[in-house]
Amino acid sequence: MRLEASSLIFQLFLGLMSSLGVVVTMASVPSLPAMVVHFQSTPHVVGWTVTSAMMGSVLCQFFWGPISDRLGRKNALLISVGLAFVSSLLCYWASYIETVLIGRFFQGFSSGAGLIVVRAACRDIYTGAQLNRMIALILTVIPFCAGISPFVGDLLVSRFGWDAPFLFLTFYSGVLFVFVFVFLTKKSFCTVRATFGEVLSSYGLFFKDHFTMLLLLASSLSYFCFFIFIPSSPWIFHYFFSLKGLVLSCAMFAFPMGTFFGGLFQTIWGWNFHPIKMCFFCCGLNLVALACNWLLLMFYPSYMFYIGFMMIFGATTSIFNAICVTLIMKRHKPQYSGNLSSFLGVGQMFGSTLGSFFSSDLFAPALVIEIIFLAFGVAALVCFLVFKEKGCREMLSSSRLWTS
C-alpha cells in the first residue's frame, strides 16, 4: 500500500510526525508532581527529566538532517521513531528516576528528528505553492499539538497515574512507526541521498549565503521571543493577574490558538502576498500590539488585554516563521535539504535556549514586553536588509513568485 503526497491523510501524517517532539516534551509535564511522590525524590531532580529531554532535542539538531541526507528520509524516520518508541517504553517501565532521565534524553534526541526530517522531505516532495502550504500547515499543527498535549497528559495522570503519559507516548510513536513502515514507499516519500562530501560542503554554502543567514537570524529572533514569552507567562498570570486553576490553563491556551489561526491564514491566503512585505507587516503588527499592551499595563492592567496580545503574538510569529523557513528551504537544492533543516534547527534552538535562559528571571509583564519589542525591532531591521540584499530584490520582485 502507498499514499500519494497530495492526499490529506499523508499531509496530516507529516504534521503529526513533525509535532512528535513537542508532544513528547509537553504531554509528560503534568506527571512531574506525581513522579516526585512515586520515586520519593525532589522537585529539582524530577525537573531534570524535562531538561534531559531538551538536551536531547538540542543535540539531535546536529545529526538527523545529515543522517537523512545520507540514508534517506524514510530510513531516518524509521530509526528515530523506533528509538522514540523504545525510550518511551523505558520511561514507562522505569523503577528508578535515573532510568527516567536516560529515557527522557533519548526521547528528546529521537523525537526531535520528526520536524527536521519532515521539513527536508517537504522540500523533496513538494514545489511551488504546495511547498508553501505544507510548511505553513506543519507550523499550524505543531502549536496546536503543543497546546493540547498538557491537557491530555493531565487527564491521563489524574485517571491512571504518573506513568500513563509515557504509555500514551509509546502508543503514539508506535502508530507513527507502523505508518512509516507500511504506507511510505519510495514513490510516495522521496529518498534523496547525498554523499558524505556533499553533506559537509553544504555547510559552506549556507554560511556564505547572506540571504540564508539573515533569514535564519530573523527566525531565531522570533524563537528567542517565543521562549521568553511562554515560560514567563504562567508566572505573570499567577502573580501579576492572580489567575489560578482552569482560568490559568485557558489563558495559556490563547497562544497556541493564535499560532494555529496564523498558520491557517498563511496556509490558505498568506502566500498571495509578497513574502518579505508580509514579514514587515507581522513585525509592525507585533510592535504596535506590544506598545499598546505596555501602555495598558501601565495605566489599566487587565489579563484580557494580555491574552489578546498573546493571540496576536502567536499568529504573527507563526506567519513570520513559515515565510522565513520556506524562503530558506527554496533557496537551496533538494539534496541539501536534510542538512539545511538541521542548520535551521540549530539556529532556532540557539534562539530558544537563549530565550529560556532570560525568561527564568522575567516575571514583570512590562519588562517581558520591552525585551520582545526590542527583539522584533531587530527582526524588522533584518528583513529590511534581506530586501536590500544584492540579487534578492529581483528574486522577490513578484508578489506571486512563491505561489507559482
Describe this structure as you would to a colleague.
- This protein is mainly alpha-helical and 404 residues long.
- It folds into two domains: 186 residues, Growth Hormone, Chain: A (Up-down Bundle), CATH 1.20.1250; 192 residues, MFS general substrate transporter like domains (Growth Hormone, Chain: A), CATH 1.20.1250.
- 81% of the residues lie in helices and 0% in strands.
- The protein has 19 helices and no strands.
- Helix 9 runs antiparallel to helix 14.
- The longest helix is centred in the middle third of the chain and has 33 residues.
- The radius of gyration is 21 Å and the shape is globular.
- The C terminus is likely disordered.
CATH level 3 topology of the largest domain: Growth Hormone, Chain: A
Q: CATH architecture of the largest domain, please?
A: Up-down Bundle
Question: Structural class, from helix and strand content?
Answer: mainly alpha
Mean pLDDT figure: 77
Number of strands: 0
Main sheet record: none
Count of runs of 4 or more consecutive helical residues: 19
| CATH-assigned homologous superfamily of the largest domain | MFS general substrate transporter like domains
Low-confidence runs: 398-404
CATH C-level name of the largest domain: Mainly Alpha
Task: Compute the separation of the termini in Å.
Answer: 31 Å
Summary of the model, kept short:
The chain has 404 residues and is mainly alpha-helical. The protein contains 19 helices and no strands. Mean pLDDT is 77; it is low at 398-404.
